[in-house]
Write a structure and sequence with these properties.
It is a single chain. By secondary structure, the chain is α+β, with helices and mostly antiparallel strands. It has 16 helices and 17 strands. Strands 3-4-5-14-12-11-6-15 form an eight-stranded mixed barrel. It has a four-stranded antiparallel beta sheet with strand order 7-10-8-9. Strands 1-2 form a two-stranded antiparallel ribbon. Helix 7 (146-156) packs across helix 8 (176-186) and helix 14 crosses helix 15 (406-414). The longest helix has 24 residues, at 38-61. The chain is globular.
């Protein structure tokens, strides 16, 4: 049973050769010739034990320590030797014993299923690449590779295999454009049915690359705390999406805006949301004051007044509103004074702030810049996370308190008073990173590696000792 687990490790997102996968057949055959010598038996037992230790650890906590990738997740503790001694050696069904220590998340199991499907796709001959396009091909326009496109979409499941195409096979029309829209939706692209350069680029990604993305997603599932249970809020950075789970089922989903890939990446970590602030002030981080606001004052002397900002001391006492003299600006530049934006229309945090105290000073909040949610790539912030529908998120978080009706939440968002509301109980918030995600209905979605986290994890896995 153990040898079968080692040789079939690819189904679990692992590498068989890391558990001597190719060697076990010949090792087993040595015992068919007759009883093994004590030395041969000891050698076999040692190889089996070493491989079992590594396999059990990898399938339960992952192959890489997340902290080695500057990730804020804490590695799971697991007594591998104790499990092997007490659960595996004496087990009547070692396969079941191994499955019991895999992550107990529905998303993990869905990802394994998708991985198996894409491994089968990758084992088939890869179709020819679609020709690049300089400008988008619109529905109804001619497209010489229409039949080739149909074959790709059928292979990926976005176009039904029995779909009858028009005799005019050189035209990009329905049902091809509908299938392209579905493909775009699954790959984080603008869903417009146009066959543009980004869409063609994603269509040409080989199945072998998707296998790698799913394998990395499986690895990251193993980093999550084994005792993690709903209710919880999950933000997947490359997907620019927030999901809330009341039970194991999805309760709420919305778009988010995350930190800029180049210089303000949103960190990956887990912490507990504890309270909500209605009509929040925005306490401007010193880095933004130094690098963006103060340099802009020369060309925009009315910046503070236009953005409803005020300078305060360490006790919150207002020193200046609107314009500030040179001495005050010098103290602000030196960090002896603070800058904040008053609540209300135009406040950078919108009307609600969702706080889960953490070392990164990251939080969720609303935003007045609604148009940015229309972009398919949404890394525009300085690290905090802007949510598309703060009213619905507040209602979900306060759902256990019947006094917080939708009307009261709306009135609090539009009122004149800043106040803080503690949650009925802390809610875990997971800021995660996955370029592959499998929905509850089994739909597989892929996203760009905007922070190059996949590339870093691939390098770490490749550096493992054989």
């Amino acid at each position: 049973a153990l040898v079968e687990a080692f040789t079939q490790a690819g189904r679990k997102g692992l590498q068989p050769d890391e558990y001597d996968g190719p060697l076990w057949e010949s090792r087993m055959q040595r015992f068919t010739a007759g009883p093994p010598t004590p030395a041969a038996l000891a050698s076999f037992d040692l190889a089996l034990t070493v491989s079992a230790i590594r396999y059990v650890s990898d399938i339960h906590v992952g192959r890489v320590n997340p902290r080695d990738l500057e990730c804020g997740l804490v590695p799971n503790h697991f007594d591998v030797a104790q499990f092997i001694r007490s659960q595996l050696v004496s087990s009547a069904n070692p396969k079941d014993a191994l499955e019991r220590i895999e992550p107990d998340f529905d998303g993990y199991r869905r990802t394994l299923k998708a991985l198996e499907d894409y491994r089968k796709l990758a084992a088939q001959p890869e179709p020819a690449l679609l020709p690049e396009v300089k400008k988008p091909v619109l529905p109804g326009q001619s497209y010489s590779a229409a039949l080739q496109l149909a074959q790709k979409l059928q292979r990926l499941g976005d176009l039904q295999p029995d779909t009858q195409l028009s005799a005019e096979s050189g035209i990009y029309a329905e049902p091809l454009s509908a299938a392209v829209r579905r493909f775009q939706s699954r790959h984080g692209l603008t869903v417009d049915g146009r066959l543009g350069p980004e869409t063609v680029r994603e269509l040409n990604v080989p199945a072998a690359r998707r296998v790698i993305q799913l394998t990395l997603a499986v690895e990251r599932w193993r980093w999550l705390p084994a005792d993690l249970k709903p209710p919880l809020v999950v933000v997947n950075i490359p997907e620019f999406q927030l999901r809330a789970y009341q039970t194991r089922r999805l309760a709420l989903s919305m778009k988010v805006i995350v930190g800029k890939a180049f210089d303000h990446q949103t960190p990956i970590f887990i912490d507990n949301m504890r309270y909500i602030i209605f009509k929040p002030y925005w306490n401007v981080p010193r880095s933004i004051i130094q690098n963006e606001i103060l340099p802009a004052l020369g060309a925009k002397p009315n910046y503070f007044a236009r953005h409803r900002m005020e300078i305060t001391d360490g006790n919150g006492r207002i020193i200046s509103q609107g314009r500030a003299d040179a001495a005050t600006l010098q103290q602000l530049r030196a960090g002896r004074l603070q800058l904040r934006q008053r609540p209300g229309q135009g406040n950078s945090l919108g009307q609600v702030k969702f706080v889960f105290p953490n070392q990164y000073d990251v939080y969720l909040h609303g935003t007045p810049e609604r148009s940015l949610f229309l972009q398919f790539r949404r890394d525009f912030s300085h690290g905090c996370i802007r949510v598309e529908d703060p009213e619905s998120l507040a209602a979900w978080l306060l759902r256990e308190d019947p006094s917080w009706t939708p009307e009261r939440i709306r009135a609090s968002m539009n009122g004149a008073r800043t106040f803080q509301v503690p949650l009925p109980r802390p809610v875990p918030v997971l800021i995660l990173y996955g370029t592959a995600f499998v929905e509850e209905n089994g739909e597989v979605r892929f996203y760009q590696d905007i922070y190059r986290q996949d590339a870093a994890l691939e390098r770490a896995l490749a550096a493992r000792r054989p």
